[in-house]
């Protein structure tokens, strides 16, 4: 019988959950948390699928599910132009079908569903060359930025001796406040200060940001907003992550945008205060082509792995449980619009954070 590739129906969600159990174990997040599966792969957010099932491509051999590619739908902003796109995650094939081209069949299908942008992050090292062969724009490792507000707590967690870098000249964050959701003023800020001729990335409008952070089913993301009077001038999103089986915690910044260096410094200073209040061992932030690296440097962050290799090599990135080996976050993106296929400068405009796709989620 020929293999059939298609979007799943609503009645096939249980078969997909069983597929996770069979291939990745009953304790995998998607196997044990149907509500998280429904949130991450929300069909309501994917206009490319009309079958009513979760947002994914599946491969069937008769009534048997033998392959799946999860699809997180999002619009992308590509140098000022809105394009439909998907983040790829949870690629699976039944063990006895891996040699039958199920993975290739799924990837071919992804390129035919109507998305103009296809992206993925947290790529397995063995799969990474595959995306290069498919002419994706590839990033070997998302740049990471680290702030150590307390050397003692940092050393307790990592075993490393590190300096708390000075942060002279930072103005007090008088206009930085904690907020619960993104409103219409965020859309105006994003369109004016982020999206534009030099930006290729997720269309981070208020609808997307609220779905991704304010409405997350598990994590308690928080927003710090910087304002000049009533005008929004910047914002960052973070969460506090407790290390499994320890009292230590880490502050994970997942989004950071500012209209200028001044607001970036104010937000960095506000993050410092939160980290100190929460007794965080350190703060980190992963982002490709981040606009305000110099502001982080002025705020006492470690921003260059080449000049301080011990800090970057010894600062863990996984905490459930604690893994003292840092892990690179490999990412890839392809724009299917013919106008962009021959561009060689796309990577200079590509903006990806660690939270894009499914990389900031529970275990």
How would you characterize this protein structure?
Helices cover 27% and strands 28% of the residues. It is α+β, with helices and mostly antiparallel strands and 363 residues long. The longest helix has 17 residues, at 261-277. It has helices at 13-24, 29-32, 34-40, 102-110, 128-133, 151-158, 184-194, 206-214, 261-277, 293-298, 309-314, 346-349; strands at residues 4-6, 56-61, 64-78, 81-93, 117-121, 137-139, 144-147, 176-179, 200-202, 222-228, 231-242, 249-258, 283-286, 301-302, 318-319, 322-323, 331-335. The strands form 3 sheets. Strands 1, 2, 3, 4, 5, 6, 9 and 17 form an 8-stranded mixed β-sheet that branches. The protein has a 7-stranded mixed β-sheet with strand order 8-10-11-12-13-7-14.
CATH topology of the largest domain: Aminopeptidase
CATH superfamily of the largest domain: Gcn5-related N-acetyltransferase (GNAT)
Measured by DSSP, the beta-strand proportion falls in 25-35%
Q: Which structural class matches the secondary elements?
A: alpha+beta
Q: Quick one: how many beta strands? A: 17
